[in-house]
Design a protein that fits this description.
The structure is a single chain. The protein is mostly helical. The protein has a domain at 67-242: Glycosyltransferase (Alpha/alpha barrel). It has 14 helices and 10 strands. The strands form 4 sheets. A 3-stranded antiparallel β-sheet has the order 3-4-5. A 3-stranded antiparallel β-sheet has the order 8-9-10. A hairpin with a 5-residue loop joins β4 (183-184) and β5.
Length: 442
């Protein structure tokens, strides 16, 4: 394995994790974090209709119909609330956080039966009644509201986060097989993933995205509300990820039936798999993200299975490094697929997406601190990942990150900086986590 990575980085000088290097990297990433916040705020604040803009062009100017979703709005609430804590001298950040919480709590919460709606128009009006409510959406609502409560200390914020937890318990928790269903209609009936039809070989009722981000949200909620039932659920979800969702080869499966049987694409030819790849694939970014989320949750719980969790998290990280890392240019590929009887995943999409690079950056640094003498040399991989991001993802003219790698297409310079699935959540979190971890390592 050592020889493999010597080949990957043979033309690059390896760096050591000495105090001088750690200090330099910490200052460097802190500067990137400041620029990231400056680019997004106040550019994202919708002063006319409330909440945050969804659609911003490459110059961070509003451009689009501004349909709003709970996931996008909550991600902004989380990021600006974190910025409040990190940069308390900037009073504007608190105003933006108040602005975001007001919109989410007043426009997205279902006052009749609870839970957060999935989407609205720009004004926060529910236009469609046929769009399911998702556990994924509820998780980000909790995550953003908890971060807001930390800076505001408003009891109504904590109450809303707790109410969301209880709503999930009442309507989306599976008492028989544990975990949470992914989707529920607005009549509170559990449904499978919309639009999959007969493509899959089972009912698509539970998914990796929902479970991962519920772990993330519940972990943060537990820090300010150490409820016994909440702790049980966190422990259950962590165990489900390890025992049911991580496959023997070291990656996360996407979707599952009620009893946690993996749901797969029925017709596994290359062309058919490519058409429905979003339903079943190896997501190198999700694997890297899960690795550090699992590690942080196990650290919070401090239970006897922490070492087992770390082994599983390292398995995910090593799989992503081995099969997802671009050994020639740097960066992490989007996804691959295990065809029948193949020893390793076939690369299916070699594009490099901004959020994947961000998640990988922190994961590589985290594992360099946990396993400083490991043959993978995680610190060198982290350093090369940072260099790649700085060269091909940071927009030094208008701010923010490009959606895909600049070395593949210069057209990325004019692609939107914000849309329904792109905000500053992944990038802010990765940069802040790196700064804080580098400080600990020092």
């Amino acid at each position: 394995m050592n020889s493999l990575f010597r080949n990957i980085f043979s033309k690059k000088r390896e760096v050591s994790a000495d105090a001088e290097t750690l200090s330099r990297l910490k200052d460097e990433i802190e500067q990137l974090l400041v620029k990231e916040v400056d680019a997004w705020y106040p550019a994202s604040i919708d002063t006319s209709y409330g909440g945050f803009y969804t659609d911003l062009d490459y110059k961070f100017e509003p451009d689009g119909d501004q349909k709003k979703t709970i996931i996008h709005q909550a991600r902004h609430l989380w990021a600006i609330s974190r910025a409040c804590s990190r940069y308390p001298s900037n009073n504007s950040y608190r105003e933006y956080a108040d602005h975001g919480f007001s919109f989410i709590s007043q426009k997205f919460w279902n006052n009749k039966s609870g839970g957060f709606y999935t989407e609205s128009d720009r004004n926060g009006v529910l236009v469609r009644t046929d769009i399911p409510m998702s556990a994924f959406g509820q998780s980000f609502a909790i995550y953003g509201i908890v971060a807001y409560h930390r800076v505001s200390q408003k009891p109504e914020a904590l109450k809303l986060a707790i109410d969301t937890f209880h709503w999930l318990e009442n309507y989306m928790y599976d008492k028989e097989f544990k975990g949470y269903f992914s989707y529920i209609d607005q009549n509170r009936k559990i449904i499978e993933r919309p639009g999959v039809g007969s493509v899959l070989d089972g009912n698509c009722l539970k998914g990796v995205n929902s479970i991962l981000h519920l772990v993330e949200a519940y972990t943060e909620l537990y820090k300010i509300w150490p409820d016994p039932l909440l702790r049980v659920r966190i422990s259950e979800l962590l165990d489900l990820i390890q025992s049911k969702m991580i496959q023997p080869k070291g990656y996360l499966h996407n979707y599952f039936d009620k009893d946690w049987t993996p749901v797969r694409i029925k017709k596994r030819t290359k062309s058919h798999v490519r058409n429905f790849l979003y339903l079943e694939h190896v997501s190198f970014g999700h694997d890297a993200e899960a690795a550090f989320l699992m590690s942080e949750t196990a650290k919070l719980l401090k239970n006897r299975n922490s070492n087992k969790t770390l082994v599983k998290a390292k398995l995910l990280t090593d799989h992503s490094v081995t099969y997802g890392l671009d050994r020639r240019k740097g960066g992490l590929f989007k996804n691959g697929y295990y065809f029948d009887r193949r020893r390793k995943p076939t690369p299916m999409d070699r594009s490099k997406i901004w959020w994947i690079q961000a998640e990988a950056l922190y994961t590589f640094l985290l594992f360099s601190s946990l396993f400083p003498k490991d043959e993978q040399n995680y610190f060198e991989i982290f350093h090369q990942q940072l260099l790649y991001i700085k060269k091909y993802f940071i927009d030094y003219k208008y701010g923010g990150w490009f959606e895909q790698e600049l070395d593949k297409s210069q057209k990325q310079k004019r692609t939107p900086k914000s849309h329904e699935w792109k905000a500053t959540y992944h990038t802010y979190r990765a940069l802040e986590n790196c700064v804080e971890l580098l400080d600990e390592m020092l």
